[in-house]
Amino acid sequence: MSLIKRNNIWWVDFTTPSGKRIRRTTATENKVEAQEFHDRLKAEFWRVQKLGDRPTYTWDQAGIRWLDETQHKNTHQDDVSKLTWLQQFLRGKILMDISRDEIISIGEVKKRESSAATANRYLALVRAILNKACNEWEWIDKAPKVRMYKEIKRRVRWITAEQVKILLDELPPHQKIVTVFALSTGLRQANILNLTWQQVDLKRKTAWIYGDQAKGKEDIHVSLSEHVVNLLKTQLGNHPEYVFTYRKKPIANINTRAWRKALDRAGIVNFRWHDLRHTWASWLVQNGTPLYDLQEMGGWQSSEMVRRYAHLAPANLSRHAEVVSSILYGTNVPQHEIKKDLQLL
């Protein structure tokens, strides 16, 4: 049979003129689309092998090969989602016929739906696939140039200790505990909810995130304060494996209706769960933590990500600004002498 359904996805199964059996996913649950994919693929093999033409590859084939070659990457599931959305525009398109203008129009649609930053993620995927098809797979002679949108740098969103206290009073107990832990460690939501007792040493006041769990793919060492250690001790016995639970079961999602309602009652607007991490970093910088220490504590690979918080520590940097004054006037020059010099300028 030419079409076979496996786990709701249609697969093609046919034999080429040379006798080679082809079994390949169509990456769709729609039988009509699967049949179209099958017919194009079968016709392509016949044209190439019988007539000796150069193979003509489609976007669908490029997408499938991309997913096959990148399934080991963290971005694999994100790519699946993006490619599913892109199919409405590029399904069945011959790679060499995909123009720059067509890609721009796709970017405009996504930009209107969400933002320039999100549109750039989709355009980057299209560009990467076309470049690979050109430079590595040699399926096309030239890949169209894809220009990214200019992204607006968003300000770091953080809240004060007073706002946090109000929020904590509004949260249910299990969310309150997780929120305090997030503010105390700066860990990302997934790392907190998936934290196991094997990753915690209460005696040494430390926890760790394994490299395969971290966004930067490097182990993260987490120092725990005495307050956080006592907080974790209240969770002992709730679950044999996971640290944070609700009704003796691991917490699957913390960004719930209860969390959003608590924010509303606390009068905190435009605040996401991830902004707890921004709050943690902002508090540390404002209280003198050097940026290179913050980078290590937060598990950031790029110093650029950490520089977002540099503007929050002007008071801590003022001692460096005084260096020039000490060179010009020394450390004990009367104030009126400095004013006298300034009047001569």
Automatic annotation (TrEMBL):
Entry-linked InterPro entries: DNA_brk_join_enz (IPR011010), Integrase-like_cat_sf (IPR013762), Integrase_catalytic (IPR002104), Integrase_recombinase_N (IPR010998), Tyrosine_recombinase_XerCD (IPR050090)
Gene3D superfamilies: 1.10.150.130, Intergrase catalytic core
PROSITE patterns, per the entry: TYR_RECOMBINASE (PS51898)
Pfam entry (one): Phage_integrase
Residue span, Tyr recombinase domain: 154-322
Keyword list, A-Z: DNA integration, DNA recombination, DNA-binding
Family named by the database record: Belongs to the 'phage' integrase family.
Protein name as catalogued: Site-specific integrase
Organism of derivation: Acinetobacter pecorum
